[in-house]
Design brief:
18 helices; four-stranded antiparallel β-sheet; alpha/beta; 3 domains; Helix Hairpins; 481 residues; six-stranded parallel β-sheet; large conductance calcium-activated potassium channel activity; elongated; Alpha-Beta Plaits; K_chnl_BK_asu; Rossmann fold
C-alpha cells in the first residue's frame, strides 16, 4: 500500500512537470500506473484481492539504467548500454511471464474460467525462457486459448529479441578490459603510480632497481597505468612480481582512470620517457600533458617525471601546483649526460663513479686477489639515506663521520640541514661549522640498506663497547623511547 501511495504521488509530480500533457498519458510509466495503482485501492475498499495486472510493474526495470546514471554508478558508454539491454530483456521476460501466469490461473472467459491450471509465477518465467530460446522442453505449457495465442506472438517477438539482445550482451561482457578494474589500497602499505612509456625494457629496468634486494624490505606497491594492454612478455614480468606490482589499462589524461588507481592516496607518481623516440620535444610535450592532467586531478600529488630536453623543463614552472619544495622533480636525461661529460673533463672517472653509486648491483665474490675483486666490491656500494640517531645530536659533522667510519663501518658524505626558517638544504661535508640537529637525514655510501640502519639504531650507552658493527641493532633504551 505504501509503495502505491508513493507511485501515486510520483505520478502526480511527473504530470505537473511534463511539458506535453497529452503524450504523458501514453508513456510506459503512466500506462503501468493506470493498471496497477487503482486496483490496489479498489481491493482495499471492497476487501477483496485480485491478481490483476500487477506484473506490469516489471516494466519499471527499464528505468534501472537511468537510476544508476543518476547515482553516478554508471559512467562509461559500454556499461550504460549493457544495463539498458539487460533491463529491457529482463523486464520483457518478467512481464510476459506475468501475463501467462494471469491467464493460465484464471482461464478463458468464454469457457467460464473452467480451463485454468495452477502455475506458479516462476514456472511461467521458466516457460517463457525455454520458449524464447526455442528449446521448448514441453514439461510446462499453456492450456488456455489466451495463453496459447499469446505464446504464438511472443515466440515471434521473443525469438527476435533473444537472437539480437543476448549476443550483444555477451559481446559487451566479453569486451570488458582484462585490466579494467580498480586498485584496492591496503591499510599500512604505500603505493606509487608509474605511467608514461611502459615497455618491457623500461619496466624491467625500473623493477630491477626499485625492487633490488639491497634496498631491504620494500613495502611499497607499484601500480602501472598505460592505455595499451601488455604483451605476453610484459605480462609474464608482472606475474613474476605479482605481490608488489599491479597493472591497469587506462590513461592518465582520463580522471576516471586516475580515480581507479587511487592517485589521491599515492605517495608519488612517476612518468617514464621514451629515450629512443624520434622527436624528443613531442615526447616531452606528452609527459608535460600527463603532469598537467595529474595535477589538475590532485594538486598535492608528488610527481617525478623524465624529460629528454633541458629547455622543456621550464614549461613545468607554468603549472600552478608544481612545487619543487614538495618533492616534484624533473629528471632531464640530456642534462645528466652533458653534466657527466663536463664533470669527467674536470675529474677523470667521476661519471663512472657516480653511475656505479646510483645503479643497484649486488656484490660478486671473486677468490683471486685481483683488481677486479676490489672494483666489484666498490661497485656493489650505493647511495642510501637514513635518519641519524639522537646520540649524534650536538656533534660536528667531522666527528660523526669519524664515528660512523670507525665504529659503524659507514661512509657519511652529506646531511640534510634545516635552517631556522625550516628550509632544507643538502650540505656535502659541511665541516665543523654545522652541529647535528634532532632528526637529521644522513647520506651514506653502503652496500645495502641494512648496514645504514646502524646509524639510526646507534646508542652510546648500549653500543659503545661493541666492536662488531653487525651487532648494532635496536637496543632496550630505544624501545622505551
Amino acid at each position: 500500500m505504501a509503495f502505491n501511495v508513493f507511485f501515486l504521488l510520483y505520478f502526480g509530480l511527473r504530470f505537473i512537470a511534463a511539458n506535453d500533457k497529452l503524450w504523458f498519458w501514453l508513456e510506459v510509466n503512466s500506462v503501468v500506473d493506470f493498471f496497477t495503482v487503482p486496483p490496489v485501492f479498489v481491493s482495499v475498499y471492497l476487501n477483496r484481492s485480485w491478481l490483476g495486472l500487477r506484473f506490469l510493474r516489471a516494466l519499471r526495470l527499464i528505468q534501472f539504467s537511468e537510476i544508476l546514471q543518476f547515482l553516478n554508478i554508471l559512467k562509461t558508454s559500454n556499461s550504460i548500454k549493457l544495463v539498458n539491454l539487460c533491463s529491457i530483456f529482463i523486464s520483457t521476460w518478467l512481464t510476459a511471464a506475468g501475463f501467462i501466469h494471469l491467464v493460465e490461473n484464471s482461464g478463458d472467459p468464454w469457457e467460464n474460467f473452467q480451463n485454468s491450471q495452477v502455475l506458479s509465477y516462476w514456472e511461467c518465467v521458466y516457460l517463457l525462457m525455454v520458449t524464447m530460446s526455442t528449446v521448448g522442453y514441453g514439461d510446462v505449457y499453456a492450456k488456455t486459448t489466451l495463453g496459447r495465442l499469446f505464446m504464438v506472438f511472443f515466440i515471434l517477438g521473443g525469438l527476435a529479441m533473444f537472437a539480437s539482445y543476448v549476443p550483444e550482451i555477451i559481446e559487451l561482457i566479453g569486451n570488458r578490459k582484462k585490466y579494467g578494474g580498480s586498485y584496492s589500497a591496503v591499510n599500512g602499505r604505500k603505493h606509487i603510480v608509474v605511467c608514461g612509456h611502459i615497455t618491457l625494457e623500461s619496466v624491467s629496468n625500473f623493477l630491477k632497481d626499485f625492487l633490488h634486494k639491497d634496498r631491504d624490505d620494500v613495502n611499497v606497491e607499484i601500480v602501472f597505468l598505460h592505455n595499451i594492454s601488455p604483451n605476453l612478455e610484459l605480462e609474464a614480468l608482472f606475474k613474476r612480481h605479482f605481490t608488489q606490482v599491479e597493472f591497469y589499462q587506462g590513461s592518465v589524461l582520463n580522471p576516471h582512470d586516475l580515480a581507479r588507481v587511487k592517485i589521491e592516496s599515492a605517495d608519488a607518481c612517476l612518468i617514464l620517457a621514451n629515450k629512443y623516440c624520434a622527436d624528443p620535444d613531442a615526447e616531452d610535450a606528452s609527459n608535460i600533458m600527463r603532469v598537467i592532467s595529474i595535477k589538475n586531478y590532485h594538486p598535492k600529488i608528488r610527481i617525478i617525471t623524465q624529460m629528454l630536453q633541458y629547455h622543456n623543463k621550464a614549461h613545468l614552472l607554468n603549472i600552478p601546483s608544481w612545487n619543487w619544495r614538495e618533492g616534484d622533480d624533473a629528471i632531464c636525461l640530456a642534462e645528466l649526460k652533458a653534466g657527466f661529460i663536463a664533470q669527467s673533463c674536470l675529474a677523470q672517472g667521476l661519471s663512472t663513479m657516480l653511475a656505479n653509486l646510483f645503479s643497484m648491483r649486488s656484490f660478486i665474490e671473486i677468490e683471486e686477489d685481483t683488481w677486479q675483486k676490489y672494483y666489484l666490491e666498490g661497485v656493489a656500494n650505493e647511495m642510501y639515506t637514513e635518519y641519524l640517531s639522537s646520540a649524534f645530536v650536538g656533534l660536528t659533522f667531522p666527528t660523526i663521520c669519524e664515528l660512523c667510519y670507525v665504529k659503524l663501518k659507514l661512509l657519511l658524505i652529506a646531511i640534510e640541514y634545516k635552517s631556522e626558517q625550516r628550509e632544507s638544504s643538502i650540505l656535502i661535508n659541511p665541516g665543523n661549522n654545522v652541529k647535528m640537529q634532532e632528526g637529521t637525514l644522513g647520506f651514506f655510501i653502503a652496500s645495502d640498506a641494512k648496514e645504514v640502519k646502524r646509524a639510526f639504531f646507534y646508542c652510546k650507552a648500549c653500543h659503545d663497547d661493541i666492536t662488531d658493527p653487525k651487532r648494532i641493532k635496536k637496543c632496550g633504551c630505544k624501545r622505551r623511547e
